Here is the input.
Amino acid sequence: MFWRIASFLACQLAGALLAWLAASPTHVKTSELEAVVLGVLAGGLLWFLLDLSRGARLMRWLRAGDFSDSVMRTGLWAEVSDRVRRLIRIRDQAASESQKRLQDFLSAFQASPNGVVLLDAQGSIEWFNHMASLHFGLDASRDMLQHIGNLVRDPGFVSYFAGRDYVGEIVMPGREHSVARPVRLSVHLHPYGQGRLLLLSRDITAVEQAEAMRRDFIANVSHEIRTPLTVLTGFVETLQSCPLEEPERERYLALMAQQAARMQTLVSDLLTLSRLEGSPPPSPSEWVGLLGLMTQLEQDARALSAVLHPAPDRRHKLHFEGLEGIEIAGNSSELFSAMSNLVGNAIRYTPPGGEVQVRARMLDDGRFEFSVSDSGPGIAPEHLPRLTERFYRVDHSRSRDTGGTGLGLAIVKHVSQRHGAALKIESTPGKGSVFAITFPAGRVRAPVRELIV
Ligand code: ADP
Here is the structure.
């Protein structure tokens, strides 16, 4: 401000001086005092015009909006321009920080496993994330600022949106929903800001399927247990109320023991399954000798065949082809359980006198295959994909008659998966079936001789 006043006075002084010189009696006739006053005024006017032009320059600079460099170096206007530049820099920094924060928020929403849609007070879409576009079939280039009611037309959602009561959530089919591949969404609207809405969607297909499976499982288990229990209760009542002859009594007791054994097998299979689901995966460094497993399998198979068909000429022809020295990395009781289920099934479903062949062999690529083939009734192709489902049976009465629980192949599949192995089932109705478990090379240890063959 000092320089401003000083420059103003200097201009006036210079004007006065020039006027005084110009008004000396040799040149002009006006009095010297008048000339000095006029000079002061002219100097003041000149200063004002110069100042005005600097102000106009500043104005042009402000209008141009390029604040990268100062427009002036000295004077009040230079200070004004510097302060403006500083304020603008602070404002720009604040704007870019809040922009960055907004981007961070949007990236977080984008990374959300749930669908997020931001709606304005009119219900028009302001923003949505990738998951929401999958859930509702939204397209960013087409659907921004469109009303949500025009794009999500499920009647349940339409009435939920119109009802304006957003306390609870609704469940509706997703965009990709079909009867063959159901997709279920849980959708919840949350009011925020001034009349705005946050729409959250969550894919609950897997949760609903797990819930349905749980319900089916409980229903199946109850059904499986109820049948032998009903039979047992009936026999107990008969024994309590009727005086029976000894042979009759013994026959009843034998039947009761059979039903109790059936329940025991069921409970034991259920426990095996739950252990498989709840325990950590089998160790890849614990080696189980195949020979021991095969010996035990053969003994059990011959005993089972003898129990099912006591007459020696009706027993199965059993062939066991093992390899010496082979070891599998995993859990020995799980491996035995899976293998004995396959051998047991082959014996139980193959008619008397039929053939059952159990083979253990190394494959060319270093994998190891354990297979059980039989000359039994075979299985129609439509059943094959469902055989490993819990309680799935092709022939219910045959399964029950032979003491089946419907859980054997589910256990086999589970054990195979836990050991990184694959279960393959091939069958021709009327000719027989082959069940094979193939273990990856990393889980098999063989003597060098076996690897070369
Ligand atoms: P189950 O205890 O009833 O045998 P599994 O899960 O072991 O239950 O087998 C499922 C169904 O697959 C059986 O009920 C049976 O219908 C069929 N199945 C399994 N193994 C054989 C086989 N070797 N030959 C014919 N059918 C088989």
